[in-house]
Amino acid sequence: MKKVLSLMLVLSLGVSCFAGCGEKKTDESSEPAVSTEESTEESTEESTEESVEASSETEEVGDNGNVVILYPGEETDAMANFINNQLNPKLKEEAGLTVELIYKGWDQYWEQKDIMLAAGQTIDLYWDGLPDISSMVNKSQCQPLDDLIKENCPDMLKVIPESQLAGGVVNGVQYGIPSAYAPSSCMYQLVCVRQDILDAVGMDKIETADDLKEFAEKAADQFPDLKGPADIIFKPLTRNFADEQLTWIAYGDSVVFGEESKKAYSYFETDAFKEVAKFNESMYAAGLYKDELTTNYNERDSRMQQGTYLWVEGSLGKENEIKASVKSNAPEAELKSYLLNPTADKYITACGGEVLCVPYSAANPEGAMKFLNWLYKSQENYLFALYGPEGDNYTIEDGRISLKDPSFEGYFYEWMFRNANYTMFTSDVSDDFIKTYESWDDGAKTSSVISFHFDNSNVQEIETAITEVVNQYFTPIECGYVSFDENYDAAVAKLKEAGIDEYVAEVQRQLDEYFAQ
Predict the structure, then answer these.
(1) How far is CA 197 from the centre of its chain?
(2) DSSP code of 395?
(3) What is the longest distance spanned by two Cα atoms in the chain?
(4) Of 127, 255, 441, 487, which residue is most buried, by most CB within 10 angstroms?
(5) How many other β-carbons are positioned within 10 Å of the β-carbon of residue 448?
(6) Measured between alpha carbons, how far apart are the two ends of the chain, in Å?
(7) Rg (the chain; Cα; Å)
(8) How many domains does the chain have?
(9) Does residue 438 sit within a domain?
């Protein structure tokens, strides 16, 4: 029976469906995903041994102006050539620095990051999702940056405003640099669809969950070779069904904040969650979802890039980030992102985006800051880090980047350092999208909890227990993989036993203190 099998399969997801709203990535391309932090004691010990062995090659790399960066993804020959023969000579001449990247694949990045930092391995700079910064502070994974920024980053401070930096402040201390400075309202509340298929089935837009189901049904009828949706898109669906904007504010997705009610809620007990689960269950019942959407959740973006799927969770500009990969498999593909429930208020929150941190194990923290300052010093440096020297892979024509090879995705991830002051679009991005991008936050409201970071130090055991319940019982329910009616009440009982009420009360207590300041 699928319902029994699911409880075994979802354990491999860890906190897959519920890893907070940080935009993590699943492979070498720039796509959102989630991290898994759970591992067995045995695998952790083995991984630690592997990390220590690997660190022997870089034990002293922080000396002599070298900056060691922990980097998600796999090393490529092109990236190695760029770092060694183009970036480092320029950095050495202009900033007295060189950089060295330690690569960890997406499937192990977050687990290995934790292990390496706990072992004190030399790392000067690393990336993670902004919503996790409180947990990283509690784990002593990032050191205060106030003085380091003040002393080494005068140019960076010109293009990353104080309001943006505030997202990396915990208990009055700057622990991280929120680096994705760009239009950000409704982050992760969009859905990126195959627009060419949408046009072909006679539909002109997606605004509701019902529109999505109609799209999937028509596509299944007219294009039977396609595999359907690539993602259960639970956050866009939450926007669709919620009576007010719900912003995730604790570890994983266990607690949300109502932007109108100003209260914390157990997400899995909200009406919005119930409707999301029932909708996804109906998609399975209709044969529109495939089992892999649940059993292999982390592969959602990889699925979309195969060119045989209909949609994936989106963000502003997601279609531009993944279109090259999609088109490599489906040359006729066109992508477009839609906001579900488009007339509802849009909120700018800190629940999303990227953060750059310097661990206590850093041998060259000043160098890490100087590297970021060099990158943000000018648009020339910014584009050089992303695409290399002008003329090699691209030219700039009429304020646009013209790629010599449309499949070239750049070197450093653009989303890791995105800055509205320096953003330059490629020539294949439409004028309509650019207008939408530049005006996206017009009229958006600023979240009341944009600078709120939950401190879980008083409830860590409860948090662990809740996570286990979520992984085992709520993941398959939310995905629609098991019957809502048959499983929900028992799952809620388990959540209560784990201490969700006490956990929500602690979040609310901290919220009350936050609002009282």
Answers:
(1) 27
(2) E
(3) 66
(4) 255
(5) 18
(6) 53
(7) 22
(8) 2
(9) no
3-class DSSP state of 28: coil
List the beta bridge partners of residue 314: 190
Tell me the one-letter amino acid at 310.
L
> Cα–Cα distance between 320 and 367 in angstroms, integer?
32
Please check whether residues 304 and 291 belong to one and the same domain.
Answer: yes
SS in 3 state form for 21-52? CCCECCCCCCCCECCCCCCCHHHHHHHHHHHH
Residue whose C-alpha is closest to residue 266's, from 274, 389, 100? 274
68 by DSSP, 3-state: which?
strand
Give the pLDDT confidence of 306-316 residue by residue, as tens digits. Answer: 999 999 999 88
Residue with tokens 């049904």: 217
Beta bridge partners of 397: 400
Query: pLDDT tens-digit profile of 411-441?
Result: 999 989 999 999 999 998 889 999 999 999 9
Other beta carbons within 10 angstroms of residue 182's beta carbon come to 20
In Å, what is the CA distance from 212 to each residue of 141, 220, 422?
41, 12, 35
Cβ(107)–Cβ(348) below 8 Å: no
Helix axes 88-95, 365-375, angle to 10 degrees: 100
CATH number of the domain where residue 54 is located: 3.40.190.10
> What are the pLDDT digits (tens) for 452-501?
888 888 999 999 999 999 999 999 999 999 999 999 999 999 999 999 99
Instruction: Give the residue among 183, 112, 259 at the shortest CA–CA distance from 419.
Output: 183
CB neighbours of 1 closer than 8 A, spacing ≥ 6? Answer: none
**104 contacts 71 by C-beta, under 8 angstroms:** yes
C-alpha dist (Å) from residue 444 to 129, 184, 191, 271, 439: 22, 9, 19, 25, 10
Residues 199-221 have a mean pLDDT of 98
Residues 224 and 210 in one domain: yes
Q: Which CA distances in Å does 349 have to 66, 416, 441, 513?
A: 35, 18, 11, 19
Residues 218, 168 share a domain = no
- Contact in structure between 35 and 17 (CB atoms under 8 Å): no
Mean pLDDT of 123-136: 89
CA angle 180–186–191, rounded 5-degree value: 100
Looking at the fold, whether 175 and 58 belong to one and the same domain comes out as: yes
Q: Which two structure tokens, joined as six digits, stand for 284?
A: 């399975």
pLDDT digits (tens, 9 = 90+) for 234-260: 999 999 999 999 999 987 789 999 999
Write the pLDDT tens digit of every residue in 276-296: 999 999 999 999 999 999 998
Q: How far apart are the C-alpha atoms of 476 and 50, rounded to whole Å?
A: 33
**Nearest residue to 194 (alpha-carbon basis) of 299, 311, 30, 318:** 311
Strands 125-129 and 347-348: unpaired
- pLDDT the model gives residue 26: 35
Q: In this structure, are 222 and 271 located in the same domain? A: yes
Amino acid present at 515: F
| pLDDT exceeds 90 at position 360 | yes
Per the structure, the complete domain to which residue 221 belongs is given by 1-30+185-348+452-517
492 and 343, same structural domain? yes
Structure tokens of 498? 């784990």
